[in-house]
Automatic annotation (TrEMBL):
One of its GO terms (molecular function) is ATP binding. Residues 216-227 have a biased composition (Acidic residues). Residues 165-227 are annotated as: Disordered. Residues 195-215 have a biased composition (Basic and acidic residues). Residues 165-176 have a biased composition (Polar residues). Pfam families: PK_Tyr_Ser-Thr. This is Protein kinase domain-containing protein. Residues 1-161 form the Protein kinase domain. Gene3D superfamilies: Transferase(Phosphotransferase) domain 1.
């Protein structure tokens, strides 16, 4: 069963209830409660407290992996920003990224070639651009965490992120293991993206499903923040 988008259809001024966490939210396009929980979950290395190692591998799903780590690269602050961008897209649209594709080598090649799900935020260009930047194939072109906080109007204290840890980790290099003989990840052209979006639409229209998540994870599951 798919969950619905957390974007409320009510008119301006009325209460908005997130369909994912069922809490009231105030952002124009995103539920800030879900965003904060995702930030805590996906950036465990930057938390000023001990985090269970299992949390670090919470999102090892191809749909959320940065292209540079799909074929063996190391996790970096930049790859975390990519994963967060994909989760932000999921929160804003209410749809699982690459819905209709199974997790196989074909999807890996699609991601590596710059194919991204369509961002359905035409009415909120600032958020649209933020997600687009987070999903850039070139790690150095992705925004830093401080910029993400600023764009989303989130105080980093709200997610217990240690900005000094982020700065000290920013020099982490990407391993070349698994990249031999492969070209560098690239951004797709607008024309290529359009064709890919048509392909995704056709897959879903024909109900060629297999869910990207296991059967027991059809809905977006954001774990509760630890004590």
């Amino acid at each position: 069963m798919q969950y619905t988008s957390n974007q409320d259809k009510s008119s301006e001024g009325e209460e908005k209830i997130c369909e994912i966490c069922k809490l009231k939210y105030s952002f124009e396009s995103f539920c800030e409660h879900c965003v904060r929980k995702v930030l805590v979950m996906i950036f465990p290395r930057y938390l000023p407290r001990d985090v269970d190692d299992s949390t670090k591998n919470e999102y090892n799903n191809i749909a959320y992996m940065a292209p540079e780590i799909i074929f063996g690269g190391q996790r970096t602050p930049e790859s975390d920003i990519y994963s967060f961008g994909m989760l932000l897209l999921e929160i804003s649209s209410g749809k699982i990224p690459y819905h209709g594709y199974v997790h196989n080598s074909d999807l890996k090649v699609k991601v590596f070639s710059g194919m991204r799900p369509k961002i359905l935020l035409e009415d909120h260009l600032e958020y649209h651009e933020l997600i687009n930047q987070c999903l850039d194939a070139i790690p150095s072109k992705r925004p830093i965490l401080a910029t993400v906080f600023e764009k989303l109007k989130i105080d980093e204290k709200d997610v217990y992120v240690n900005s000094q840890s982020l700065q000290s980790s920013s020099h982490t290099t990407i391993s070349e293991n698994g990249f031999k003989g492969l070209p560098e990840p690239k951004n797709a052209t607008p024309e290529e993206q359009e064709e890919f979006h048509k392909e995704l639409f056709k897959l879903n229209e024909d109900k060629v499903d297999p869910n990207l998540h296991p059967d027991d994870q059809d809905e977006l599951e954001i774990p509760e923040q630890g004590n």
